[in-house]
What we know:
FAD/NAD(P)-binding domain; 6-stranded antiparallel beta sheet; 5-stranded parallel beta sheet; flavoprotein; GMC_OxRdtase_N; P2Ox-like
Amino acid sequence: MSNPTIAVVGSGPIGSTYARVLLEQVPNARVIMFEAGPQLTAVPGESVRNIPDPAEKARAREMSQGPQAGAYRESLGIPAATVTEGMFTARQGTHLLDFGGVGSAHAPSFPAAAAATNVGGQGAHWTCATPSPAFSEKVAFIGDDEWDSLIEEAKGLLHVHSAAFADSKVGEAIRRLLDGEFGAELPEGYGVGTLPVAGDPQPDGSVRWAGADVVLGPLTDKASPLSQRFELRDLTLVRRVELDGHRVTGVTVQDLRTGDESFVPADVVVVAADAFRSPQLLWASGVRPKALGHYLTEHPVVISTVALDADKMKQFATEEDLDAELARRAQNPADPVAAVNRIPFSEPEHPFSVQVMYSESTPFPMEPGTPYSDNRWGYVNMGYGMRKHPRYEDAVTFDEDEQDYRGFPNMTIEYALTEREEKEIAEATERLRRAGKALGVFVAEPRLMPNGSSLHYQGTMRMGEADDGTSVADPWSRVWGYENLVVGGNALIPTATAMNPTLMSVAIAVRGARKIAKELS
């Protein structure tokens, strides 16, 4: 095919991966990317965490909260004040799917389900955590050598570095205390360490956080020849994927500025919105494999806040080390670079993914004068992420007789934790109590977050080895029976995972894009 056109639905890290790899590997290809939300930053897809002005950052987040935010602001549950990322149900920059107004989804068993609608998708708001999948988290039908290659390319696209915060003496003290508690129980290579993150360290010790912008790279640089073959259309809603039998011919889109609809022909269509709106678009287009929307998983999360004990910390860090840490964080008070540690997922010893974020304040107000309300050594916010084992019954389904706020078949989410998950939650809670005791004193007791709080929604377009009704896509991310319809995102992950899924999903997207590029070339 001499001059193929690829339509990409969704501008997050996954859609951006497809655009980047295809334009680099197919010399005459053209990519048109469609995003229903607005562009928030001068550089398309940049993380809003990089915006220095608090008012501008708040404005960017508000713009991401969906067109229903104005009408239903009070029911969105989004805190107006500054919050610690990941510690509240409705994170700033997102909007609840079940927001309580006309056209709202129905998700009583998954109440915290949320999405972001903007250029860069959740990549404009994520915490940039990029651990690699391990053990049973990995996709079994991708060989280890290929998997390692895919992960390395994904790390390069996301600008992942593993030594973040390694020079923090406060962070090191936290690691050593946790290692003293858990180290002997963990396998080699899977002990306490720093959290790999996506971003570029700056000379002043800050980090320029990565979003979809770093994945797009030269595609948005007007000086690059690749940019001449790339087009990003924001505020453009893809209404349908158009079909001729079992072949995709293009997409019908609506310009949300004017309301006008038009058809855009394409040789390949990549649907990479999110784990709810991607299957919704397929369903609305008449693409309805048995597994579509089913096998929904996320990460149940148990969280807590601990006041660090001075005597414990002083075993490994000095008052001067603490002053240096606080001075570094004060350089960027709107988004301080935290000392983030973790204990990664491993089997069978530790089927959890733990993140421990240092902060000089709690993510909630404490009454002045109460115990530990002004703790000199600060606090850690800890979260234990656990597995949700895939079941057909956990699903998002769609109703042709009821429209959502955008005129699509409305969603209903059914989801339940089973005895298997409840057992792992209990085990994780006990370990969280051990971690808290090793570090200090709980000022917020361990609690299980409402279903959907993780924002890591997976499985609703899962990939598989065979077209047997248990998967939506083949091993190269193509929808079964449609050779030129490709899907991408966390929704493809077929396994039970405990870690942040972005790196894994980008690696899967690299594999799918390489396959398309080979065929188009």
